[in-house]
Recover the amino acids of this structure.
């Protein structure tokens, strides 16, 4: 049994704290986030560390059966965070109804192809998940965070 699984089980029995779990998984989460962010468009405002922290906020209070379950949930949280960022960016680029801007104020709001690509992949992945959940999970782990069969 891995150290992470041991901490997860101890945490489920209130014998380990959230801090102990974070210490056990932080470096691996950061590596996952770095891999994922390396596939994002240049100039993305979200950094790997912020992605880890945001993912932790989304999943930190959940219980997990084992290491695989935890990292699968973390991968999904990171994917959803990036999809949410892409949607917000597209909304800003397409008006979003927030605020009228002059042309010279639009520097930095250029919509990149990668945002569109990420949303298409998200949509297709949703369809795959309905038909073949295990294959969809494999795609998420490989495409979004670069995990291999190891």
């Amino acid at each position: 049994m891995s150290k992470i699984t041991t901490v997860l089980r101890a945490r489920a029995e209130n014998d380990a704290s959230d801090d102990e779990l974070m210490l056990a998984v932080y470096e691996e989460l950061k590596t996952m986030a770095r891999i994922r962010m390396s596939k994002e468009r240049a100039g993305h405002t979200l950094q790997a560390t912020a992605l880890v922290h945001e993912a932790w906020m989304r999943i930190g209070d959940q219980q997990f059966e084992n290491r695989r379950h935890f990292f699968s949930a973390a991968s999904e949280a990171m994917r959803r965070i990036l999809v949410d960022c892409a949607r917000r960016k597209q909304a800003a680029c397409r008006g979003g109804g927030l605020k009228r801007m002059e042309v010279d104020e639009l520097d930095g709001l250029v919509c990149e192809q990668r945002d569109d690509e990420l949303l298409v992949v998200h949509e297709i992945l949703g369809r795959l998940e309905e038909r073949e959940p295990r294959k969809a999970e494999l795609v998420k782990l490989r495409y979004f965070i670069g995990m291999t069969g190891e």
Q: What stands out?
A: The CA atoms of residues 85 and 115 lie 9 Å apart. The first helix runs from residue 3 to 12. The chain has a mean pLDDT of 80.
